[in-house]
Amino acid sequence: MNDVNSIVEALSVNAEKIPNKLALADKKNSVTYAQLWEMVQKGATFLKHQGVLKDEIVIIRGGNKVEFIIAVLSVQLAGGTACPTEKAIKDDRVSEIMEFLGSKTYIADKPAAIENINNISLKELFKYVKEPESLMESFPFPNPEALSEILFTTGTTGKSKGIEVTFACNISIAQNVIDSVDMGADEVELMTSPINHSLGIRRTYTAIYLGSTAVLTEGFKFANSFYKLLDTYQVTAITFVPAILEQVLADNAEKFATYNQQFHYIQLGSAPLSETNKELLVKMFPDVRLYNTYGATESGCTIILEFSKYGNKHKCIGRTTVNTTVLFVNDEREIIEPTPDNPGYLSFKGSMNMKGYHKEPEITAEVMSDDGIVYTNDLGYLGEDGFVYLLGRVGEVINMGGIKIAPTEIEEVVMKHPMIKDCACIPIPDAITGEAPKLFVALNDGYEFDQVELSRYMLDKLESLKVPKVFEVIDEIPRTFNGKIIRKDLKNRNS
After folding, report:
1. Per-residue pLDDT tens for 284-300?
2. In 6-114, which ranges are E strands?
3. CA distance 8 to 209
4. Residue 209: how many CB atoms within 10 A of its CB?
5. Of residues 309, 166, 181, the one with CA closest to residue 240
6. CB 80 within 8 A of CB 53
7. Average pLDDT of the segment spanning 260-283
8. Which pairs count as long-range contacts for 127-135, CB under 8 Å and 24+ apart, including other chains?
9. Do the bridges between strand 374-382 and strand 388-393 make them parallel or antiparallel, or are there none, so unpaired?
10. Predicted confidence band at 359 (pLDDT cuts at 50, 70, 90)?
11. Which of 23, 44, 302, 473 is deepest in the core (most CB within 10 A)?
């Protein structure tokens, strides 16, 4: 498929090669490649006659359903740029996004109460594309350097930004995913991540590019629906964010483990997976390849660790993906050869990188060079084994008298104590060492905090300087929807 320039073009090729193969499914609908390609062409025709213009940015609100993907691909084939949003988005936020993007068209199940916009019903679009007699026009395939979508993220600066993704970027990202997990054309992959999120939509694109099958579900709201999809479509792979995986494990880990012989791989992304859950998954699925992905909306999947094979490599996040070149730079963005004691900022070069932040040239320049290198605030180094090792994000890594301490190293140990439900570590000022670790803990039911016991436990597993002297018990550790610790909230609490 190296000769295609967009996911919609890949879809057309697969519709010719494997017309009767299942392409997409959810709990209500399923479509083959031939059906999906016909629906996307009809969808593009429908949108054209509804007033969608070439090069227009179209906002699409919807859940993990077949019709959402049809709408996204229809916009792209019609010559537009899709901007997928979360299912629970409010009209005032829709209005803000549309004003910022200069967008006039909004596709959703229900119209937005916003003046002077083109409300298009997602239900009507889906109804139109399913009708055999609906008009279907021909459209040229998109230019690879044109914008396929704009994805909103808070990113590294905290400001909500629209990430510009080209059609060529999505092809490169799909190739990275396929290579990194050894994805086969016969995979049937369950997508549990929100489809508006980069992880969910890109893994779905990857299935369409490869000619495999993507099954869409709304996280893990209903256990019966989740397992019914696994059985109905004989799912062979799953994409999770850690927060959704934790829901599955908390519901019935033993039942989930019975799929060991059915699954080929499980991949996790968007947030680090705890060492405790890594160890648990390895025990539950001895015959399944298990992956944790490092990446960002700006670059997609750039580094991946097969932790079922290399889980003994402490602080390791894996190897770079096929289209990715990893660089390490200093504060002046000069390329360096990092070491554990002198780490560098992880930076990425490759065709998978974003075009930039929409209408934000200054913020783009903060994270991206003129020649397309994306810089992160994550500190790490390349080991002698060729794997990348991550210490943490600048501002989160604790510099204790020149010794760099990764907060995750402390958290991983603490999470194994039965007293602890959740925890998070942040740097605090120290008169002698400059910085020192402080640990926030949330307790499991039935426990009272015992600092002496917890400190003794940590001393058995960590160097003494890494054991925090300052603790605070809180009800809940603040996290994002996909499980990332919101450390700035803890720092604000501490200030």
Report:
1. 999 999 999 998 899 99
2. 22-25, 30-32, 57-61, 81-85, 105-108
3. 8
4. 24
5. 181
6. yes
7. 89
8. 128/42, 128/43, 128/46, 129/38, 129/39, 129/40, 129/42, 129/43, 129/46, 129/70, 129/74, 130/39, 134/42, 134/45, 134/46, 135/42, 135/45, 135/49
9. antiparallel
10. very high
11. 302
CA gap 356, 150 in Å, rounded: 10
Structural contact between residues 242 and 272, judged by C-beta atoms closer than 8 angstroms: yes
Task: Identify the helix (H) or strand (E) that includes residue 414.
Answer: helix 407-414
**44-103 pLDDT, tens digit each:** 999 999 999 999 999 999 889 999 999 999 999 999 999 999 888 889 889 999 999 999
Here the tokens at position 235 are 């799912």
- Reduce the DSSP state of residue 366 to 3 states and report it: helix
Q: Mark out the alpha helices in 289-404 (DSSP H runs).
A: 307-310, 361-367
Nearest residue to 84 (alpha-carbon basis) of 157, 148, 176: 148
Tokens of 107: 């596709």
Query: Which residue in this structure is represented by tokens 């307790």?
Result: 443
**What length does the chain have?**
495
Closest of 247, 251, 135, 154 to residue 197, by C-alpha:
154
Structure-block tokens of residue 56: 């227009």
Structure-token pair, residue 233: 């479509």
The model carries a pTM of 0.86
Distance CA 189, CA 171 (A): 18
